[in-house]
Specification:
The complex is a heterodimer of chains A (225) and B (72). With 225 residues, chain A is mainly alpha-helical. Chain A contains six helices and no strands. Chain B contains two helices and no strands. The chains are: A mainly alpha (225), B mainly alpha (72).
Chain lengths: 225, 72
């Protein structure tokens, strides 16, 4: 096994985040009842950042596939989308846990919750669609086209509509600009944990994805041998 | 059938262990070491680190196995 720099970076960053994430002093402004649960910023929010980055890589490989069809591009595109879905599901679950104690119930039909759920369902349909083809070539090609559609559905579901509606999440109605983070709830020390967390969790997702890609390549070799 | 028996056994084991916690806690002086400070938050830190370490070991072993397959 090759211990590339980014695998080591992922391990070190996540260990740092898991320690500093609990040690760092968090602001407890009056009127914001988050208290210590704001530390979820280092674990729940990076799931969404990771998901978006993995989906972006996925769509890049889908476009690459359409430009030059090769099984490798198809594997990359599929597996990055798969890990992205895993991150998204973890984001939904951790969000529901947090919401249960912050907003009183796990699912409040918050625009960001709904949007994220719709986006994930669209990506799950990607795998349903792929599964419905027996012909590998067709599956890869139509899958790649659908992948691009699924990616562009992220714009309304995650990046536009939640910003326009009133939300329980920080931000909303464009008043604070950012639909996920409220600058008032965080400080510089927290950002020094948050951004390493985003990078660390994303690298972990990439690591898992590369394992699955290598597995797919091995499977294909075995199948065609 | 096997699965049902296993499930029931697991369920019973889970239920019966709860009675083990039903004793009244002994009034011992609260320890004041590092792990008990700050509302025992370091216990959670340790748990997270253990889970993370376990996950990484699992991931590395998977990576190794796939590398081995790739060599053959």
């Amino acid at each position: 096994m090759k211990f590339t720099w980014w695998k080591i970076a992922s391990i070190l960053l996540l260990i740092y985040v898991s320690i500093a994430g609990f040690m760092v002093r968090v602001p407890n402004p009056p009127g914001v009842p988050l208290q210590q649960s704001i530390r979820n910023l280092f674990f729940h929010v990076p799931m969404w950042f990771g998901m978006m980055i993995l989906f972006i890589v996925s769509v890049i490989y889908a476009i690459k596939f359409l430009k030059s069809p090769s099984p490798k591009n198809d594997f990359y595109s599929t597996e990055f989308a798969r890990t992205g879905i895993v991150f998204g599901i973890l984001g939904l679950i951790t969000g529901a846990i947090w919401a249960n104690y912050q907003w009183g119930k796990p699912w409040s039909g918050d625009p960001k919750q709904n949007g994220a759920a719709i986006a994930l369902l669209i990506y799950m349909a990607y795998f349903v669609l792929r599964g419905s083809f027996t012909d590998e070539d067709k599956r890869a090609r139509i899958g790649a086209v659908y992948n691009i559609f699924a990616f562009f559905m992220l714009f309304p579901t995650l990046w536009i509509l939640p910003r326009l509606a009133e939300s329980l999440h920080p931000g909303g109605l464009g008043s604070e600009g950012n639909p996920g983070l409220n600058p008032k709830d965080s400080n510089v020390q927290m950002k020094l944990v948050f951004w390493p967390a985003v990078i660390g969790w994303t690298l972990l997702g990439v690591w898992i994805t590369t394992l699955r890609i290598r597995l797919q390549i091995l499977k294909e070799k075995k199948y065609h041998a | 059938m096997h699965k049902i028996i296993r499930f029931v056994t697991l369920l019973m084991a889970t239920i019966f262990t709860t009675s083990l916690f039903a004793q009244t806690p002994q009034a011992t002086p609260a320890p004041t070491d590092f792990m008990h400070s700050n509302g025992k938050i370091y216990v959670v830190v340790l748990v997270v680190i253990v889970i993370l370490t376990g996950l990484f070991i699992y991931l590395i072993s998977l990576d190794r196995k796939i590398s081995q397959l790739e060599k053959d």
